[in-house]
Every structure is written in structure tokens, then in C-alpha cells.
Design brief:
about 260 residues, Rossmann fold, about 45% helix, globular
């Protein structure tokens, strides 16, 4: 189990593929570990060196106490790249992973070749919404919120047709560390990058789910409009579009990065 000791946190990661290939970093959503990117691995492993990691508080990474910030999550990525001797990467992040990608593109653009922002926005929800989620998890644990979150992650049609793909996502969410989960809830609550993202010059693709109740289409398109030259890809999916429309998602990312 590779762990990078970054000082504040230890990040669990997986790095596969030859050093001669361009590196593609995958950053996962709130409440998941890096296995959420399994659907993308077969195709992308043929062309890229793949770096997947569990953000602080998630998966097999360490769980520092307290509220986290998007800046901390971004600096964790930079520290991880530094520890592995990797200078410049393509970065693909979904939801909070995408928010991390925005921060990197604003504050460390020299580390990014191309950026894929998936099912994400520059500002998500309200303080009341996130404080309510934090309180619910602290009171009742992850199982108290997991079922409701799954309903936002996948469309009813997908949940009915593909229970074998929904079950692992539910298990990840139910087994997520409550301290790490609420720490990242606070990071999302306190994040507002609506003004900052206009400074992004990194070539960017914005992927959004046409049926995503977490990220309204207008919020995804706002990101694309603020980033000059950004491309967009709409998928017939809810929040975890990389799972629900895995083939179209993978192909869209491959086309953009090529």
C-alpha cells in the first residue's frame, strides 16, 4: 500500500504505467476512494501513466482532525507530485476533485498540461445545506446519509438497471470515515471560486450530467463560460457520470487529451 507522507497528511496512492508516458491524475468525489475510477482504467492505461490517490480523510489515506479547505487539498496534490518527482500532469477531477483541479489551475498552472472538470462547480450548495449534512453525519454516522446521496449520484433508471454498479458506490459511502467526510464537507461549504476561475488559462474540458441534481447545468456552464476556450461535454447521467456513462465519459476524456 503506497503511502506518501506529506507532513499534514499521508496520502494513499497508486501509480501505474511507464515513466515515458504523460501522467494523468484522477481525483475522486466526496465519500469515495480512488477505485471509483476503475471504469476508466483499461482504456486510459494504454496511453497514460495513471496516478490515482485518496484525498485526505478518505480511503486509506490518513484522517487529520478538523475542517479541511480546498487549498489544503490542492497543496496535497502538489506535495504528492513533488514526492513522486512528477512535474506536469493532466488532471481529471470529479465533484470535489474538480474543485481541487480549479484551485490548481489558478494557483499552480505550471503543474497542469490539461484539465478535466467533471460534475463540479465553482460554488456548490449553501452553508445551511452543508452544515446540515455535517450535523447529520456527526449524529448518526455515514449510513444515515448514504441512501439519500446515492439517489443524487445515479438516475433512477441506472439504479434499477445496474444494481451491481451502484452497490460498490454505496459500500464506499457507508464505509467512508465520518471525520474525513465532514472535513471535506466543510471544504466545499467554504469554497467559492466563481471569480477566481476566470484566471484559468489551462486548456479545460467541462463534463456535466444533464440529470445531475447536485450540479445544475447552469452551474456547470458557468464554469465553462468563465474559463476562456473551455470545451463542454454533456452526458445523460446524474452526478457520478464516469460510472453511469462510463464509455462516453472515457471517450470524451481521451478525445480531449489527445
Amino acid at each position: 500500500m503506497p503511502l506518501a507522507n506529506l507532513g499534514e497528511a499521508r496520502l494513499h496512492y497508486e501509480l501505474t504505467g511507464p515513466e515515458t508516458r504523460p501522467t494523468l491524475v484522477f481525483s475522486n468525489s466526496l465519500g469515495t476512494d480512488f477505485s471509483m475510477w476503475d471504469p476508466q482504467m483499461p482504456a486510459h492505461s494504454q496511453r497514460f501513466r495513471i496516478l490515482r490517490y485518496d484525498k485526505r480523510g478518505h480511503g486509506q489515506s490518513s484522517v487529520p482532525p478538523g475542517d479541511y479547505t480546498i487549498e489544503q487539498l490542492g497543496r496535497d496534490v502538489i506535495a504528492l507530485l513533488d514526492s513522486l518527482g512528477i512535474d506536469r500532469v493532466h488532471f481529471c477531477g470529479l465533484s470535489i476533485g474538480g474543485m481541487t483541479g480549479m484551485w490548481l489551475a489558478v494557483h499552480a498552472p505550471e503543474r497542469l498540461a490539461r484539465l478535466v472538470l467533471c460534475n463540479t462547480a465553482a460554488r456548490i450548495g449553501t452553508n445551511e445545506t452543508w452544515n446540515g449534512r455535517i450535523a447529520a453525519v456527526r449524529k448518526g454516522g455515514m449510513k444515515d446519509v448514504a441512501a439519500a446521496v446515492i439517489e443524487r449520484w445515479f438516475t433512477p433508471e441506472f439504479r434499477a438497471a445496474s444494481p451491481e454498479k451502484v452497490a460498490p458506490a454505496l459500500a464506499m459511502l457507508e464505509n467512508a470515515n465520518p471525520v474525513g467526510y465532514t472535513g471535506c464537507c466543510a471544504a466545499i461549504r467554504d469554497m467559492d471560486q466563481r471569480d477566481a476561475i476566470s484566471a484559468i488559462k489551462v486548456p479545460t474540458l467541462v463534463i456535466y450530467g444533464a440529470k445531475d441534481p447536485v450540479i445544475p447545468t447552469a452551474d456547470a456552464l458557468f464554469v465553462a463560460e468563465r474559463i476562456r476556450g473551455a470545451q463542454t461535454l454533456a452526458l445523460d447521467a446524474a452526478h457520478l457520470s464516469n460510472v453511469e456513462r462510463a464509455e462516453a465519459f472515457t471517450q470524451g476524456v481521451a478525445d480531449f487529451l489527445s
